[in-house]
Design a protein that fits this description.
By secondary structure, the protein is mostly beta strands. It has a single domain, classed as Tachylectin-2, Chain A, CATH 2.115.10. Helix content is 6%, strand content 38%. It is built from three helices and 24 strands. Strand 7 and strand 8 form a beta hairpin. The two termini are 38 Å apart.
Length: 406
């Protein structure tokens, strides 16, 4: 059984964004020349140095452990963020624990804060930060289930004009829809990509529109969900996505990319998908990086160079983050380059879902989060572990600098 499947086995409902761990060999997919955005010479980039960001990590620990409210965030994964026009930072999470957190010792006599095993768990949540301090959790779940046995996980988001040229701004949030399924789809069958519109400044859900329905793709492992990361350039929003190949024991997932004109993320007809030679409205998107990434990865642009962060291939995929670089969103991508292994708590834990947060990055420093979960090896231990030690199911952060490969 793949490690990511074992990690997702729970007693009762599943917990968190799937562990997008890469367990196979890395194979880069060479693409034919074509309509490549920004194609040309750009400097190669890799991780030059990195260090733990204890301030951000500690802020989520502080907020999660705060016992003054019983309806707020105490742990979650699928960590994404977006800066709002008034300076606030909106954090978006997939499966989320709410409820009360209790001071140590826990029932096992250990020095960990803990929660009751009956604590509420919702499929998504949003937390507001101002001036570096988490303030409040929006009523959760923020995005209701679209149908019985289906749920929505929020991924990347951005602020954009309500329509092209409009002075009014809204928040667009890309959503992954999943449907309950049997093994190996214990974390849900990939179903569709949607885009939600949130009003400003009150962050009310105005609408949710379907963008790419994948239910007619017969093999769930080849269904593509877009929105794991967004990159903006020259009036376009580039939307990256991945498939769930690894759930079906194929070596690893693949990366894809679409682009949308600024202000039109919520218009399905405005999306164009890279098919290997052009940006097309229909047809099958083509891999831009194959068998080398997890379905949850992150891309950032530094000047003319795009850098993609993913969990590393092979056994190191449980602990190690690697990167690729390209001069264009649609490749060709080069790498993997230098790996690094951020700190993990003790025990059977795994790191996954590396996400860059450009709105927190400055002076050449990038802020990257990674999620942490307990690897379940006996069918139900994870839920108990996450309740026994609440610090396990929260994002960790590092800061890093990019440089030319040595």
């Amino acid at each position: 059984m793949p490690d990511d499947v074992r990690a997702r086995q729970r007693t009762g409902t599943g917990i968190g964004l799937l562990l997008t761990l890469v367990l196979g060999a890395v194979l880069l997919t060479a693409l034919p020349d074509g309509d490549r955005e920004g194609d040309g010479a750009c400097p190669a980039r890799t991780v030059g140095s990195w260090s733990a960001d204890r301030g951000l990590t500690g802020e989520f620990a502080r907020y999660g452990d705060d016992a003054s409210r019983a309806d707020d965030w105490t742990g979650g994964d699928g960590t994404h963020s977006v800066r709002l026009p008034d300076g606030r930072l909106l954090w978006l999470f997939s499966d989320t624990y709410l409820g009360q957190v209790y001071a140590p010792p826990n029932p096992a006599g250990e020095s960990h804060a803990w929660r009751d095993t009956a604590a509420p768990l919702v499929r998504n949540s949003a937390v507001v930060m101002r001036d570096g301090r988490l303030q409040s959790t929006l009523p959760a779940p923020l995005f209701p289930d679209p149908a019985p046995n289906q749920w929505r996980w929020p991924v990347a988001a951005r602020v954009e004009p309500r329509s092209p040229g409009s002075s009014e701004q809204v928040v667009r949030v890309v959503l992954w829809v999943r449907t309950a399924g049997q093994s190996p789809w214990i974390y849900g069958v990939p179903t569709a990509t949607e885009v939600a519109t949130l009003s400003l400044p009150d962050l009310r859900v105005e609408s949710v529109v379907p963008v790419l329905d994948q239910r007619l793709v017969p093999d769930p492992s080849r269904r593509i969900l877009f929105g794991t990361t967004l990159v903006e350039r020259d009036g376009w929003t580039y939307v990256f996505g991945g498939d769930d190949a690894q759930a079906a024991s194929r070596p690893a997932s693949s990366a894809y990319v679409a682009r949308v004109p600024e202000g039109r993320l919520a218009e399905p007809g405005a999306w164009r998908y890279w098919n290997g030679s052009e940006w097309a409205a229909g047809g099958a998107p083509r891999t831009v990086l194959g068998d080398g990434v997890g379905s949850a990865f992150s891309v950032v642009r530094e000047d003319d160079t795009y850098v993609l962060f993913s969990m590393a291939a092979g056994a190191e995929g449980l602990t190690t983050i690697t990167s690729y670089w390209a001069c264009s969103p649609n490749g060709p991508w080069h790498g993997p380059t230098r790996d690094f292994s951020p700190a993990l708590p003790d025990g059977q834990v795994a790191a996954y879902n590396p996400q860059v947060h450009p709105e927190l990055s400055d002076d050449g420093r990038l802020v990257l989060s990674y999620d942490v979960n307990w690897l379940d090896t006996n069918g139900g231990a994870a839920a108990a572990q996450l309740s026994r030690n609440v610090s396990l199911y929260r994002p960790r952060f590092v800061t890093l600098r990019l440089e030319a490969p040595r």
